[in-house]
Amino acid sequence: MTVVHMNGGQIATQDSVAISREPTGRELHDGYLHGIQEVTLGLVQARGTALYLGPLELLRFGPATITGSAVEWPIVGGMTARAPGGSFRIEAAGGRLVASVDGYRPRLPLPLYALSQLPVHHLLTRLHLLRVRGREPAPGSAAAPHDRRRAAAVDVAFCFTLAGIAGRRRRLPLLLGIAAVYHVACWSTSGRTLGGLVVGERVVAVDGSQPSLMQSVVRLLSLPLAWITRRAVHDELAGTDVIIDSAP
């Protein structure tokens, strides 16, 4: 679940995932700064209480306040903040893990922020929350590898058919474009592609929720790694799983 509010140049956002075990505030504190490095594949580094992209200090936090089930950092600077103020909080409550930003003042103009920095923030926050949640308990019965291959074959054939209908010139770029839009749209709206409907499977986030648009993009972009390594790297990176679809 994602919520965004903008008021007077200040941003409030909230992302949450379902959990079965509620981590402590200390676990949430110790896990975040390390976890953000994992979900960005090391591109963003935590140094002290600040996040860096190479030599650039993206965001700097003040001393954290830790309670039994939550951690909260004040936002005190960094190149992405127009001015000190606001806070970042992660809390486990009511069977959900919630990450919220309140009172943040982005340096970018709000329209540009909404198109660039905000989607990245939601993606990285959601991926971190899903990693904290973990893959157990599983969101459903895992689809068998041979069924996943059958579904992929159906989807590839469908995309080739659409590309053939659309035109003969520049078929490869057209095919890739159709495949990208088709898969991202299907995964982020219902979790079901045509192949998934045929074999009875669907893509979900590891907490059982619908994958976000950006999760679906990450899953698509990392598919070549899955083909090379012959394991579901794309699901590991995107925080997703493929389960047997019990829906009618």
What does this structure look like?
- Helix content is 43%, strand content 26%.
- The protein is of the alpha+beta class and 248 residues long.
- The strands form two sheets. Strands 1, 2, 3, 4, 5, 6, 7, 8 and 9 form a nine-stranded antiparallel beta sheet that branches. The protein has a two-stranded antiparallel sheet with strand order 10-11.
- It folds into two domains: 2-133, Alpha-D-Glucose-1,6-Bisphosphate, Chain A, domain 4 (2-Layer Sandwich); 145-244, no CATH class.
- The longest helix has 22 residues, at 145-166.
Strand-residue proportion = 25-35%
Order of helices and strands: EEHEEEEEEEHHHHHEHHHE
Overall outline: globular
Biggest sheet details: 9 strands, antiparallel
Q: Measure the end-to-end span.
A: 24 Å
Give the fraction of residues assigned to helices.
Answer: 40-55%
Whole-angstrom Rg: 20 Å
**Which blocks of ≥5 consecutive residues have pLDDT under 50?**
none
Total number of distinct structural domains: 2
Structural class: alpha+beta
Q: What would the average pLDDT be, to the nearest integer?
A: 93
- Top-tier CATH class of the largest domain: Alpha Beta
